[in-house]
Amino acid sequence: MRVPIFQLDAFTTRRFAGNPAAVVVLDRFLDDALLQAVAAENNLAETAFVVPSEGRYRLRWFTPTVEVPLCGHATLAAGAVVVERLEPGRDSVVFDTASGPLTVDREDTAYRMELPVRTVRAVPPPLALSAALGVTPVETAIDGNNYLALLSGADDVRSLQPDLAAIARLDRTGVVVTAAGDGMHDFVSRYFAPAKGIPEDPVTGGAHCALVPFWAARTGKDTFFAYQASRRGGELACRLVGDRVQLHGSCAFYLEGHIEL
Description:
The protein contains six helices and 18 strands. By secondary structure, the chain is α+β, with helices and mostly antiparallel strands.
């Protein structure tokens, strides 16, 4: 079987920045073990598998080691593939996913998508988290699967060198660190998820489902310009709309071809 594959850099206007994602187009979902093997072979933070379905598309996401219930940057990339390659001229696409229907709309040369809000709840900072980060957070919260750690300043986020093996042993599958921005950005963040096969994710749409309501509660604002301060880096225009988070970003196509299965 020969199927199309695309690789895009999401949440960036240029190649070799943002977060790379693979998008594989199928006529039906194949065996889970095969999908996982393809994602492991691609060795990107996420591989998205899309299947046409009555004017919409079904969508699943895999890291190199596990299937995940939500991935923002690979959804943005999948939307770009649909409207720019599979159905040129189309301006909107709905993906049916494990997190419900997700819509991606074209906006000039960029895209807007809506993801479900993640409820954030404050918790005392666990000693194991502070040890793994090498710093005690100013505040700590959980959004379900992740810890969210507020640090003193943006430089602390940028310079952080956590113990990834220790993070992988925590009782949550990922850690988001954040601080108020110190320039043109309202806040900065980084995301570590070694337990899911992602030591550090370059730009994480899903993390902003918690970051946006977290910062909205602190500032009273509902619109933000955010920066994820990984080595590749990426910018996200964010807006809180009820129980949804709108994320705006661009994608740069890097690779187009076929894989043999």
